[in-house]
Amino acid sequence: MGRRAAACVLLVASAALGCRQDMHDQPKYKPFRRSTFFGDERSARPLVEDTVARGQLRADAAYFTGKQGTMPIDQMPVAVTPALMERGRQRFTIYCTPCHGQTGRGDGMVVQRGYRRPPSFHIDRLRNEKPGYFYDVMTNGFGAMPDYSAQVAPADRWAIVAYLRALQLSENARLEDVPADQRAELEKAPLTLPAEGAAPGGATEGGTPPLGTPNAVTPGVPQPAPANPASAPPPSARPHENPAAGVPTRPASPAARPSAGPGQP
Q1: Counting beta carbons within 10 angstroms of the beta carbon of residue 92, is it exposed (0 to 12), middle (13 to 18) or buried (19 or more)?
Q2: 124 and 220 Cβ atoms separated by less than 8 Å
Q3: pTM over cut 0.70
Q4: Where are the beta strands (DSSP E) in 41-179?
Q5: Is beta strand 71-72 parallel, antiparallel or unpaired with respect to 67-68?
Q6: First to last CA, the chain
């Protein structure tokens, strides 16, 4: 009997200890909760003046703004490596090609759908711009282009600038830009001549490039954006010519057409 009583006492004591509310009644403030400790009765305290978050000091103004004073810097503040170029290509593909296109000619998909066309990166004005200029445009926006400071980190902005410079060089390179020890390889490359009867640039006599070849473009001259294929009405909505009256008419709707009889399609 005594053992049973002791077991019951232990059981009741364990249950009582398990009902403590310490975890529910923690000494803390929930957001916007009133405080009687501070004179302004606000539990959320303002930051100490000149407080800087860890890793956000940004003491290197040229790196984080792309400028030296008010002028864009003319040198990359980071080493241009293959890894940086590959990172820049990835970020350019994600954030820049919708407007600027894969080659930077301003013929991206949203431009083909009616968005304002940006200038080609291959015009003389932008080829001669300093690297800091492109970084500043990505940071603060320019004209119809919004800023991308929230989407693209500073390191990735410089990676995009490096890749952009490679794009510009790819369409405006000279033989003098090729290292001397690699120029012999270019001279050995076979010269591909257009097929007999084809127009210059690989186009046919009608002026249309053959199937499977890119459109011929003139270096340094902006090309118009392709026509928007989605803007053409579907075949069912296009007017048909009435041979009797000589006026265009729209096809009758399915509800207005006579129903097919037996044996008719």
Answers
A1: buried
A2: yes
A3: no
A4: 67-68, 71-72
A5: antiparallel
A6: 96
With H, G, I as helix, E, B as strand and everything else as coil, classify residue 151. coil
Domain coordinates in residue numbering, the chain? 61-172
pLDDT in single tens digits along all 265 residues of the chain: 577 777 777 776 666 665 666 677 788 888 888 998 899 999 988 888 888 888 888 989 999 999 999 999 999 999 999 999 999 999 999 999 999 999 999 999 999 999 999 999 999 999 999 999 999 999 999 999 999 999 999 999 999 999 999 999 998 888 888 888 888 887 777 766 666 555 444 444 444 444 444 444 444 555 554 444 444 444 444 444 444 445 455 544 444 444 444 444 4
Ranges assigned E (strand) in the chain: 67-68, 71-72, 240-241, 248-249
61-172 has which fold? Cytochrome Bc1 Complex; Chain D, domain 2 (1.10.760)
